[in-house]
Amino acid sequence: MNTLVWALASAGALASALAVIVQRNPFISAIALLGNLASLATLYLLLQSDFVAAAQIMVYAGAIMVMFLFVIAYIGPRGEVQDERRRGWQIGAACAAAGAILVEVAWTVGRSGLTSAATVKDDFGSPKHVGELFLTRYVGAFEIVSLLLLVAAIAAVVLGAGARPNRVRMDERQAKVRAARQLAAQREPGA
Amino acid sequence: MVDGFIVTVIKGFALVNLLMGFFAFMTWVERRLIGRFQQRLGPNRVGPAGLLQPIADLGKLLRKQSMIPTGARPRLYLLAPFVSLTCAIGAFGFMPFGGLATIPGTSLTFHLYMADSNVALLFVAALGSLGFYGLLIGGWASGSKYAMLGGMRAIAQLVSYEVAFTLAVIGVLIHARSLSFIDIVHAQSGWYWYILPQFLGFLVFMVAAVAESNRPPFDLTEADGEVVAGYHTEYGGMRFAMFANAEFINAITLSALAAVLFLAGPEGPLLPGPLWMLIKTGLFLFIFIWLRATTPRVRFDQLMSLGWKLLLPVATLNLLVTAFFVVYGSSHA
User: Fold this and answer.
1) Contact residues, chain B, for A55 at CB < 8 Å
2) Contact B140 A27 (CB under 8 A)
3) Quick check: is A179 in a domain?
4) Could you tell me the CATH number of the domain that includes residue A111?
5) How many CB atoms lie within 10 A of CB B76?
6) Which pLDDT belongs to residue A168?
7) What domain count does chain A have?
8) Chain A contact present for B152, CB below 8 A
9) Is A157 part of a structural domain of the chain?
10) A32 in contact with B, Cβ within 8 Å
11) Residues A118-131, buried b or exposed e (16+ Cβ, 10 A)?
């Protein structure tokens, strides 16, 4: 049973990862990435990491990918790749890099002596355990990451609010509407 | 899986069918209730008191011509309702309906819940937000501007209310010290229902739940005066029915979630657990229907400012105060 689920999830992860880079349409790529995240979450479940799996779905699939899709849908057909030409050296370089990573992974796994499934304690990866680690051993890293995210959020707001003239125009328009209303009220008292 | 594979499959089959039957019954209840709210009768012709109306509706929907609009992307267009409905039903896998039950006349026992996990609540929340992909994909793949706008509105609404919703739920978690529904229900035994210590959290939860289920007065995604029918504008027949079904089952899930988190779910005197669960879920569903019958739809800017400027600060405050009292306060927590 576990092996079957593992095989399905692994195949799903590979196929969806491939679809992410092969698909021309960014919207469909994003949906394929979603499938990849779901497959990975299934693999985490098999590794007794319920919390990581749930967090993966909730944070990445539930929040981050939603924003991806939102932006892609918002930009519309402009987001689709127009330039169909692909340079040979790009494909070659990509294949070489992928091969290098494969060798690296195979070498690392082979050297680490991983032969059988790891045995872990029952509370490994439980919300309580993860929470304790976050607030004790890794509290520094945790806080620094939150600070980094805050900086990124502020930067996004600053970049997004660049369109000041628009706001001025809105104020002008509102002032015009207000003036028109006052005029109407003067002409028709009680209306 | 607490009962082994075969029993869990049987339980799942029974649960999905009961849920669908309950859904059909509730559509009748909703229409009759709204009829009463508006001083008219509601459906009362098909069968006794109109009870067979859902079956007549099903017959009508099944016989509709099914077509795919020209501008649509067929595969995604067909996929979208499945995404919504699967996620909506899946969330029920963790709902507790009681403890151990015995089949009458035998010594066979089984649990009145499908699965228990130490992160059950996270999974239900995650499935809830995954369901929104159905709306966005459906809206985008329809190739229609109104459907697109409806889908975008759904996502904006989800992002705005998800945070307040989660923060409101965390208040309960701090009290129960667990994410498992079974533990949360146990922690409320002896009439210590979390609706009392978490009343503020409960209010935030209810408002956010109505917004998350896209039901009136927060049904901006399908506001007929503005975006025709929103994300399901281009859907007809059973495909439309699947979206409507998913939306209503989401309302049922959120009602059941409210019952578990704030009213101790299947706990209660005299009556068996599943009945208590039904009564409490029904109570919250009635509130959902009540809201639909009596409140006008909010404007989009009102929706946004309510979510970000009121619910989020209140939920954060509730969370901080709860954490403070649980750490330094009463003996009960």
Assistant:
1) 122
2) yes
3) no
4) 1.20.120.1200
5) 18
6) 59
7) 1
8) yes
9) no
10) no
11) eeeeeeebbbeebe
- The answer to whether the CB atoms of B126 and A31 lie below 8 A apart is no
Kindly state whether B76 is in contact with chain A, defined as any CB-CB distance less than 8 angstroms: yes
Chain CA centroid to CA B112, Å: 20
Determine, yes or no, domain membership for A188.
no
**B129·A28 Cβ contact <8 A:** no
Provide the pLDDT for residue B6.
Answer: 83
Spell out which residues of chain A touch residue B126, defining contact as CB-CB under 8 Å: 54, 57-58, 61-62
| Alpha-carbon gap, residue A54 to A38, rounded angstroms | 10
Delimit the domains of chain B by residue range: 5-328
**Positions in chain A short of pLDDT 50:** 191
Closest CB to B126 among A28, A54, A67: A54
Q: How many Å apart are CA A164 and CA B16, to the nearest integer? A: 53
State the pLDDT at residue B218: 86
The radius of gyration of chain B from alpha carbons, rounded to an integer in Å, stands at 20
So what's the ipTM on this one? Answer: 0.76
What's the pLDDT score for residue B333?
A: 43
pLDDT mean by block of 10 residues, chain B; 333 residues: 77 88 90 90 84 88 84 84 89 80 75 79 85 85 84 85 89 85 82 82 90 84 78 82 88 90 81 84 91 87 88 91 82 48
User: Position of tokens 């009681």?
Assistant: B98
Closest Cα to residue B297, out of B206, B222, B203? B222
Query: Helices (DSSP H) in chain B: which residue ranges?
Result: 5-37, 53-62, 74-90, 120-141, 145-176, 181-187, 199-212, 224-227, 237-263, 273-294, 300-305, 312-328
State the nearest Cα–Cα gap between B146 and chain A, in angstroms.
Answer: 13
Is A98 contained in some domain?
A: yes
Query: Which residues span the domain enclosing A60?
Result: 1-119
Q: Give the model's pLDDT for residue A99.
A: 93
Measure CB to CB from residue B126 to each of A58, A67, A73 and give the nearest one: A58
